[in-house]
Specification:
Blueprint lengths: L1 H10 L4 H18 L4 H14 L2
């Protein structure tokens, strides 16, 4: 997850808090529009968080 945040900070010139909020917003959008992907989205972000704890 940190890698994605770092990329958003560098390439989109967001601060880390903005990058985190952007990721959360995108994940929420995908889960809302494509409910069948909800579990996969949760697993992807949970896996990213576990590996960086």
């Amino acid at each position: 997850m940190n890698e994605l945040i770092e990329r958003l900070v560098k390439e989109a010139q967001l601060n880390p808090a903005q990058a985190q909020k952007a990721i959360e917003t995108i994940a929420s959008f995908v889960k809302e529009k494509f409910p069948m992907l909800g579990g996969a989205v949760d697993q992807i972000f949970a896996a990213g968080n576990k590996s960086e704890d």
